[in-house]
């Protein structure tokens, strides 16, 4: 059995005089959060924080998110005022924030349940609170597509069991997640002819567009009706150095998905 002194010597040996300490500057510093501004059609500015180092997020406001926000603001009287809204894959959450500002009754902003992503959404929701009317409520939660939705539905006012509007901006690029996105739509979209899921995206990898578009026939096989509502050509591409057809990389496609009549 080792003596106390021997124990001390062994411990000192394990400490190794800092031999295994990581030198300062060995790892590159984490990328600091950046900020971006979305100018509403009304002239108001919404400033959001971005998590630049996160692989699911990036340090940009993506074109589909901006376009979704504009589309919803333009049609707030029809789609948003007094309605219950769920955003799936919200990232910085600009469309959710716009819906809350424009008078939605309830907005639930969600993205993958990663602590950094969820915390960032919460910060953006909190910083936007002064712009949101008292009758609107904006909530933030982590949600993995296809998982049970009880937690999301719990934010709805008493008597409501589903959402009037789903916002799905730049989510269908994840081809293997198409069945999970459909499942979430089935579980959360209100079964009325007015309820709608807005699917808006840009083909940042144009050669994969045929795979991305397979989402829409899958939705129709699952009880929905799909309607293409617009193609919008942006002034410039989001990622300048990416390969592929430049015009497609500048184009934002918009679709409405509603319940098929035989499902109502």
Structure characterization notes:
By secondary structure, the chain is of the alpha/beta class. The protein has a single domain, classed as Vaccinia Virus protein VP39 (Rossmann fold, 3-Layer(aba) Sandwich). The protein contains ten helices and nine strands. It has helices at residues 4-15, 63-74, 76-79, 94-101, 115-128, 150-153, 178-188, 209-212, 215-221, 246-250; strands at residues 34-39, 45-50, 84-87, 106-111, 137-142, 165-169, 196-201, 224-233, 251-259. The strands form two sheets. Strands 5-4-3-6-7-9-8 form a seven-stranded mixed beta sheet, with helices on both faces. Strands 1-2 form a two-stranded antiparallel ribbon. Helix 2 packs parallel to helix 4 (94-101). The longest helix is centred in the middle third of the chain and has 14 residues, at 115-128. The chain is globular. The model is unreliable at 1-14 (pLDDT under 50).
């Amino acid at each position: 059995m080792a003596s106390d002194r021997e124990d001390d010597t062994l411990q000192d040996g394990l400490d190794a005089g800092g031999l295994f300490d990581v030198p300062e500057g060995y790892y590159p510093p984490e990328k600091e959060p950046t900020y971006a501004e979305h100018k509403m059609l009304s002239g108001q500015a919404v400033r959001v924080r971005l998590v630049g180092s996160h692989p699911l997020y990036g340090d940009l406001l993506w074109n589909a998110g901006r376009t979704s926000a504009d589309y919803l603001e333009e049609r707030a009287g029809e789609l948003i005022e007094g309605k219950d809204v769920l955003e799936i894959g919200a990232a910085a959450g600009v469309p959710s924030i716009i819906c809350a500002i424009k008078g939605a009754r309830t907005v639930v902003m969600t993205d993958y349940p990663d602590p950094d992503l969820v915390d960032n959404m919460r910060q953006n929701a909190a910083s936007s609170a002064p712009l949101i009317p008292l009758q609107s409520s904006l909530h933030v939660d982590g949600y993995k597509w296809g998982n049970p939705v009880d937690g999301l539905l719990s934010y709805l006012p008493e008597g409501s069991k589903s959402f009037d509007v789903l916002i799905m901006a730049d989510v269908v690029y994840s081809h293997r997640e198409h069945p999970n996105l459909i499942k979430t739509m089935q579980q959360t979209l209100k079964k009325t002819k007015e309820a709608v899921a807005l699917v808006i995206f840009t083909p940042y990898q144009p050669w994969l567009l045929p795979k991305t578009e397979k989402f829409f026939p899958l939705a129709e096989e699952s009880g929905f009706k799909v309607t293409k509502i617009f193609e919008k050509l942006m002034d410039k591409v989001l990622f300048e150095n990416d390969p592929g057809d430049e015009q497609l990389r500048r184009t934002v496609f918009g679709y409405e998905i509603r319940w098929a009549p035989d499902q109502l």
